[in-house]
Design brief:
The protein is mainly beta and 255 residues long. Helices cover 14% and strands 39% of the residues. Helix 1 links the parallel strand 3 and strand 4.
Length: 255
């Protein structure tokens, strides 16, 4: 961001926003069990973000990591309106900060497994956070699967097992575009062609989870839109206003 707004090469924001959504992740039955969900809060108007965007692209190649881009909208006033931004992502980022109690909101910011946060361009730090967070009780311990039959997606969540830390949560599904190239016309990234990876394009709550096994069916038309070629489902402790640790997740290609 601009010199007046930059702090340690990242952009911070402290305005008030409503709090919103959380998502659940889909994967085919033969995929590796994911060890982490990595969410990047990014912006086309942030000059510090492109290195973090590239890291998400690299992480997206790892079948054990579900890497997601969630473009925020609070930098739109600086000269370039982010074409992928969604106010729900800004609200989600704000919700994480309120749960932590630090109100630390900036771009590029990564949240790992719903708990640890750090600068999105710190690849080594992200790997370290994945290792540290997956040791916590209940984190990414609940198997999540998805099957597609006809025009429906069925999400199945296993029971929580013996971990009391994974006994409740919300299940969300999101539409994902694997790669979106953007030509930025104004602002700090003016003249640059940037690619955003695993961009969340829509969010839909599937249901609440109480620790017992269950299945939920969602019409494909509810998550399909132009450019969407993957789906993600995740089970997360807490709720949209107070998101907690990730309990389980899955990812699948739709085409």
């Amino acid at each position: 961001m601009t010199a007046m707004m930059a702090y340690h090469s990242i952009s911070r924001w402290s305005g008030a926003l409503g709090v919103c959504a959380i998502v659940a992740i889909i994967r085919p039955a033969d995929a590796a069990e994911p060890r982490a969900v990595v969410e990047l809060f990014t912006s086309q108007g942030c000059s510090a973000c492109p290195p973090a965007d590239r890291i998400i692209g690299e992480l997206a190649k790892d079948p054990s990591v579900i890497a997601l881009s969630m473009p925020i909208d609070y930098w739109d006033y600086l000269g370039w309106k982010d074409t992928l931004a969604d106010a729900r992502f800004s609200a989600r980022q704000k919700a994480y900060s309120q749960v932590r109690g630090d109100r630390d909101v900036y771009t590029p910011q990564v949240v790992v497994n719903g708990s640890a946060h750090l600068i999105g361009s710190d690849r080594a730090g992200i790997e370290s956070a994945i290792g540290n967070t997956e040791k916590a009780a209940g984190v990414m311990s609940v198997p999540v699967t998805m099957t597609i039959a006809g025009k429906q997606i069925t999400v199945t969540v296993a029971a929580s097992g013996n971990s009391p830390a994974a006994a409740h949560g919300e299940i969300w599904i999101c539409s994902v575009s694997k790669a979106i190239p953007i030509s930025v016309g104004r602002g700090e990234n003016r003249g640059h062609e940037l690619t955003y990876y695993n961009v969340v394009r829509n969010l839909l709550k599937v249901g609440d989870w109480n620790g017992s096994s269950g299945s939920w069916t969602v019409p494909l038309e509810n998550i399909s839109r132009e450019g969407v070629d993957a789906a993600v489902v995740y089970v997360q402790d807490g709720n949209r206003e107070k998101p907690g640790p990730m309990l389980g997740a899955a990812y699948t290609s739709l085409h």
